[in-house]
Amino acid sequence: MADQSNIQSAACKSIRPFRSSEEYLFAMKEDLAEWLNTLYDLDIQVDNFMEALETGCALCQHANNVNHIAQEFQQLHPQAVQGKTIPQNEVLFQSKNVIPGSFIARDNVSNFINWCRHDLGIQDVLMFETNDLVQRRNEKNFVLCLLEVARRGSKFGMLAPMLIQMEEEIEEEMMDQLVENSKPQQEGQNLGGRPPIYPPARAQRATFCDFRNLDEL
Which intervals hold domain Calponin-homology (CH) (predicted)? Predict the structure, then answer.
């Protein structure tokens, strides 16, 4: 399995000013490629990113892996996922002798799309269509969807791309800042004889929650 330092190396290259959306798209593909290589010992490069995934095999394999991790998380932390939808429907796909662009490849990609939409509940604005991947009609939508899948998986404890990890670190800093800003108000309440109102513990937020991601912010 590839070293996780590869992901960190990709992230260092990504933290720089981008002169165009194409450069930022390149950086996202770079991080996602390193992430998939680390998870599944693949050999995906930025230059062949779409080609390496167009049969849908790796995508469906990842979907089933998310299902497995999510169900394990549910067993270990039942209270954390109470009332939440846990992805669990197996994604059927064919992995042997799949020709890119063939009906089987399209079927694999379509099954992954249905899983993203129905099991993860990913919004249409972040979804892609089969031809976006197979015929390269919309790389951006495919990359954004894959990032959202990674973001959802990280809530169950899966390794996330560095872009998502940095996103979570920023959100933690924002939460810490909110805690600091709330302290004077709590002290004033204590002087009035009222019990203090404590913010949610950071550890609870790290398990499973629906806090808004940076795209929404």
Answer: 26-154
Domain 5-161 sits in CATH 1.10.418.10 = yes
pLDDT band at 5 (very low <50, low <70, confident <90, very high): low
Polymer length of the chain: 217
Give pLDDT tens digits for 73-113. Answer: 999 999 988 878 899 899 999 999 999 999 999 999 999 99
Rounded distance between C-alpha atoms, residue 121 and residue 152, angstroms: 10
Tell me which amino acid residue 36 is: L
Largest CA distance in the chain: 73
Task: Provide the b/e sequence for 181-215 (b: ≥16 CB within 10 Å).
Answer: eeeeeeeeeeeeeeeeeeeeeeeeeeebeeeeeee
| Mean pLDDT of all residues belonging to the chain | 82
